[in-house]
Amino acid sequence: GYSSVYPSDTVTNASIAIRKIGSNAIPSLLKMVQSKDSAFKIKMMDLAGKQSLFKISFSRAEEDRWLAYSGFLVLKSDANGAIPKLSELTDSKDEAIAMLSVECLARIGSNSIPALIRALTNSNVHVQERAAMSLGEFGSAAKPAIPFLLQMIKPKNSNPINSAIRTLGEIGDDSMIPLFSHLLLNTNTTAEAGFALGRRGSNAIAPLTAALTNSEKIIRGAAFAGLEADIREVGPGRKRIDDEYSFARINCVYNLKMMSAAFRMYKSNSLSLTDQPAPTPVEEFLPETNPRTS
User: Fold this and answer.
1) If 0-12 CB within 10 Å is exposed, 13-18 middle and 19+ buried, where does residue 262 land?
2) Buried (b) or exposed (e) across 43-56, using 16+ Cβ within 10 A?
3) Could you read off the pLDDT tens digit of each residue along the chain, which spans 294 residues?
4) For the CA atoms of 58, 59, 61, 67, what is the dihedral angle to 10 degrees?
5) What CA–CA distance (Å, rounded) separates 171 from 14?
6) Of 282, 285, 292, 294, nearest to 157 (Cα)?
7) HSE of 226, CA atoms in CB hemisphere, 13 A
8) What is the C-alpha separation between 123 and 48, in angstroms, rounded?
9) What contacts 24+ positions apart, CB below 8 Å, involve 94-102?
10) Cα–Cα distance between 242 and 154 in angstroms, integer?
């Protein structure tokens, strides 16, 4: 992400300037999102760095893009007018521009949800993945994305299913527990399904508890992490409200819990790994119809 690339005083100064300018900054911010370093510019920057006689300052595309991200982070919903152009830019052939456009949309707020859902069908799987994770930040407000996320976890689509599963765990409902329980027993999706079940709270305790005796260590580790109170109980609509809560942060907490469980099992050397029976095809748990973007 772009949020921690530059010193805090630089971030503060940029934020103050953008607040003063307000929505009038949108055209400049959109240009910065599309900033590129030409081959000539890169060569000139390289030559300037090799001499000390003249001090020549160049603005790198990376710096412009960071300023754009910071601008939309500050403006939030005041930048709603930028949503159509940012949505268009998610289709850019330049992956850096497309990915940044998704991040800027997410920073604007819930009015960007339709544009982020559109990005789920992008031809670039990295853009799809970033859009899925961004939608997780909006919780239940992103429920319209559910049909598209379900399509993403069909193996034949070759899409980034892991992000889709985690986001479904955050924005979905308990009707998806059978799907997550099935995916928990597939070692390719175990970690994501453990997170999704954990986020479903007390109603998903049974499948997680049952998985604690599975012969696969990775499945036991995912189940252990999903059962942790820090995963099940923290966040909007749950028992505990954490001021620092975010979808990205709860994902990090879960990953750490799973690593901790894996380390404990490694030290105890409990239960050797064995082959599992062939899993039921995931299609049996998914709707047959394809969703359409507006």
Assistant:
1) middle
2) eeeeeeeeeeeeee
3) 554 444 455 556 666 777 777 788 899 999 999 988 655 445 544 654 555 554 444 457 778 888 889 899 999 999 999 999 999 999 999 999 999 999 999 999 999 999 999 999 999 999 999 999 999 999 999 999 999 999 998 876 666 899 999 999 999 999 999 999 999 999 899 999 999 999 999 999 999 999 999 989 899 999 999 999 989 988 877 878 766 789 999 999 999 999 988 888 777 665 433 344 445 566 666 776 678 776
4) 170
5) 33
6) 282
7) 36
8) 38
9) 94/36, 95/124, 95/126, 95/127, 96/65, 97/33, 97/34, 97/36, 98/122, 98/124, 98/127, 99/126, 99/127, 99/130, 100/2, 100/33, 100/65, 100/68, 100/69, 101/33, 102/127, 102/130, 102/131, 102/134
10) 34
Using DSSP's 3-state secondary structure scheme, residue 64 falls into helix
Rounded Cα distance between 205 and 163, Å, is 22
The answer to whether the CB of 152 falls within 8 A of the CB of 127 is: no
The three-state DSSP-derived secondary structure of 186-208 is CCCCHHHHHHHHHHCHHHHHHHH
Predicted TM-score of the model (pTM): 0.81
d(C-alpha 279, C-alpha 188), whole Å: 11
Using DSSP's 3-state secondary structure scheme, residue 134 falls into helix
> Which helix (H) or strand (E) is 276 found in, with range?
none
Using an 8 Å Cβ cutoff, are 165 and 183 in contact?
yes
